[in-house]
Please model this.
Amino acid sequence: MFECKVCNNKDKRYIGYKNNIPYCRKCIQLKTNAVEKLDYEVCKEVKANIHYDLTDTQHKASNEILGFVKKNQSVLVNAVCGAGKTELVYQSIEYFLNQGKVIGFTIPRKDVVIEIYNRLKKDYPDVEVVSLYGGHTSKLTGQIIVLTTYQLYRYKNYFDLLILDEADAFPYYNDWFLKRSCKNVIIYLSATFNEKFLKEIPNHVEVNRRFHNYDLPIPRIQKVYFFNKIKILKDKINEFLKTKKQVLIFVPTVKIGKALASKINIQFVYSNSINKEKIIDRFKKNEIKVLITTTILERGITIDNVQVIVYNAEHELFDLKTLIQISGRVGRKKAHPNGDIIFLCSKKTKAINECVLKLKSKNNVIV
Amino acid sequence: MRFKIKIKKQCHCLICFNDLFHDFSFQSINLNDIPICNTCFNQFEIANIQDTINNYSIWYLYYYNDFIKKLVYQYKGCYDIELAPVFLAYFLEKIKKEYKDYYIVYPPSSDKDNKERGFIHVKEIAKHINNNVYDIFIKKEHYKQSDVSYKDRVHIKDYIDIHDYQILENKKILLLDDIYTSGNTIKACINLIVKNVGHFKDLKIICIAKTRKKNVEI
Model:
């Protein structure tokens, strides 16, 4: 019986034969010649020129993380959307850099990889920082490697410190190639960990306030029926546009999005749309006022003074995790810490109720 | 009308690994021996164009789209030999019948790549048509057509050579290629055959995927 050494697959349907030698077809696209060698210029005694001020809550959390990391223990940072998760790990990064160790920073989205790469490069001018994402894979070794989570398959026993941003968004979480790429410590960052995650990693750091110390905006639930759905949606959009606010409309599937886009004549972006990056960029620059999107924009995007409408919120694809992340898009900047989130739904589902309860409970925690 | 209903040993799609009958339709009957599910099959853009190149007839099977790109990458780049029959699938029956007594040749790929891959990619596909597959072209140097700009692709003719061609004397020849972009590789191969093989009965060309020409004016 053949068993794949890489992904431990035994299922017969994934096994092919090349010159009568069996091979695994399940993980064949992640060609398994992973990088193991360490060849980079070690740079000790790094002095970073970082320009950021941590709030008291952030400072406390940051120290807690560093405490665990110093003991060589993996840690899970459960912070609300907009708490400034990236800033929290800077202290730990510095600690490892000063020892001359290798650091990996993974993010699910490509454009955020580029953003963080530029930031780290500016902050640590003496350190070799490398960015890695689909279509940009020429250089694989460095001291800080910023990469999309998927690219981790290239590394085997490589990182001393691995930071997984939005760890739960990753479809392979808990998977073999996450653990094999890291030697020592993993820091998991997210706002929406599930129970399994929380159980598995005993060390928790919780951040329940946003960095600007305002409350999380609570979604409003609006019941709609099939005959007045479009009308209410249009009214809401016009209401927001009158006050010169930008609106993001989330839809569950591409099919529903396309139908809606043609009905109310608004641009729609989804994973395969033609110039996705351009449209999103224009939305960020406030050139487009209203945009329909699927859940591709649910994470890692910050737009000043944006309002959110969730269309068909009762759809099964909008689970608790997704709804909390979508709600977290609103009020992320200090200039506009509040905003509206409206769930348009025909019935209240479990996920919607839980989402509201959870956000309320986070607001009630006394720090 | 001919119906073939067989109980197959392997009932999983070669491409997506799903159960073959999860979306069964009568179209699937056409693909009688190759397990491809309907969803995957519908992603092929069938071209089925007959054309001529240097006065020899050429037959394009599909258009080159993202789906074929992915398949070719998995087949050639990730060395997934099991995908070989997938590329002819829809046309296999027809090609088998029409080219029963043809001698199949194919453009060369570099030795280094073949060794690493463990098989020669076009040869594996050709084996499904008939067993007269001959390796007569060689690459003189390492040269990758896909790395070169559209204009410079003409130079491929300097890098290809022919040997052991006596076997093709007085035979029907079929030239099989995977992806057609500028047509320079095929033209170079045709020229070499015409120049060196003194007399042959017929020469036909099949290309699996054709890239769409970008319209410059629009």
